[in-house]
Amino acid sequence: MAVNRALFDDVMVPNYAPSSVIPVKGEGSRVWDQENNEFIDFAGGIAVNCLGHCHPALVNALKEQADKLWHLSNVWTNEPALRLADKLVSSTFADKVYFANSGAESNEAALKLARRFALDKFGAEKSKIIAFNKGFHGRTFFTVTVGGQAAYSDGFGPKPGDIVHCDYNDLESFAALIDDNTCAVMLEPLQGEGGIISPTPEFIQGVRELCDKHNALLIFDEVQTGVGRTGTLYAYQGLGVTPDILTTAKALGGGFPIGAMITTTEIAKHLVIGTHGSTYGGNPLACAVAEAAFDTVNQTDVLEGVTAKEALFREGLEAINAKYDVFSEVRGKGLLLGAVLNEKYKGRARDFLNASSANGLMALVAGADVVRFTPSLVIPNEDIAEGLARFEKAVAAVVNG
Ligand SMILES: Cc1ncc(COP(=O)(O)O)c(C=O)c1O
């Protein structure tokens, strides 16, 4: 049997359209395909591989745990889960942790908790959830409905109700929507999929104040921004605005599937025995790897390195732009960056992605107008330079048609 891209079309459900390249090996920020072609990885598995590929600390943690204990279910707890939860609690505003397996599941837990909290404390009327246009929170039916692109939740029958949206960074519209029947507000403290959009300080502070005024829980979806991505352990710590519930996944496991919802004791106590759960949530293998990832990222030199590497990316992208005039701006924070295509190249992000791949670079898009970069947080500076050189070739190829 030939294991190639054609096999994908034969045996896989057609909800994805992967590249024709099939990677088989990775080390740090370099990846090799079946033909041994080498790629620099500026995508990081979509902000997941925070320590690159096969980081020794993660490989060791996985191997060690693999020889000890793989799975128990929630009928028993386990040491890696307890250690990781303790670290999450000590490094954030939170007192309590719920483990899930993905970002969507972490958000699902957050939303259910918020609804239950409001029901218990204020009654059934308080069920409204406010979220933001272009926001992305996952693909379960609840989370995709809370997400800000109706196209993703249309066509699956009746949607979960009492969910409304307004524009990100539009405090006036938000103020007009929130009321005493609002139970929760969910947002990304830097919109990722929606195009790499940072919140303004007035917006994020205003949302916090209005949530407090109306007894609504503020949920930060840090699935993409969490675990060092923006240069602080969590983005909220750089914004100076603390949520009531925070979700984290992607980089939490450095490539091993895990997610978590973290919150305060006061809120957590409403998720009583039997109200929610997951067979794999808190799995020892996942938690052992995540503990190693968390320990490695949560170091001053790594977090400061993110900001230093951001500067290298910005300099390099600006130099490319000075030559080719393709971007209107580079936005984002830390190593969650978006090069926004100018009027001339609007809608062509995918062309830049394909040209990057042809030149040995893995990059991403965030919508049709933004080329997104979410590399390893410890990507060597030489790999940044080499990746940018390859990106310049890709830009030249698009510009020269
Ligand atoms: C902000 C945000 N929330 C949630 C998700 C969904 O995470 P998952 O795909 O692990 O369910 C994503 C994935 O891209 C995301 O970027």
Automatic annotation (TrEMBL):
It catalyses: N(2)-acetyl-L-ornithine + 2-oxoglutarate = N-acetyl-L-glutamate 5-semialdehyde + L-glutamate. Pathway: Amino-acid biosynthesis; L-arginine biosynthesis; N(2)-acetyl-L-ornithine from L-glutamate: step 4/4. N(2)-acetyl-L-ornithine binds at residues 139, 278. Binds 1 pyridoxal phosphate per subunit. GO terms for molecular function: identical protein binding; N2-acetyl-L-ornithine:2-oxoglutarate 5-aminotransferase activity; pyridoxal phosphate binding. SUPFAM superfamilies: PLP-dependent transferases (SSF53383). GO terms for biological process: L-arginine biosynthetic process. Pfam families: Aminotran_3. GO terms for cellular component: cytoplasm. Its EC number is 2.6.1.11. Pyridoxal 5'-phosphate binds at residues 103-104, 136, 221-224, 279. It comes from the Bacteria. Its main location: cytoplasm. The modification N6-(pyridoxal phosphate)lysine is found at residue 250. Its cofactor is pyridoxal 5'-phosphate. It is found in: Cytoplasm. Keywords: Amino-acid biosynthesis, Aminotransferase, Arginine biosynthesis, Cytoplasm, Pyridoxal phosphate, Transferase. Belongs to the class-III pyridoxal-phosphate-dependent aminotransferase family. ArgD subfamily. Homodimer. May also have succinyldiaminopimelate aminotransferase activity, thus carrying out the corresponding step in lysine biosynthesis. This is Acetylornithine aminotransferase. It comes from Pseudoalteromonas piratica. The lineage of its organism: Bacteria, Pseudomonadati, Pseudomonadota, Gammaproteobacteria, Alteromonadales.
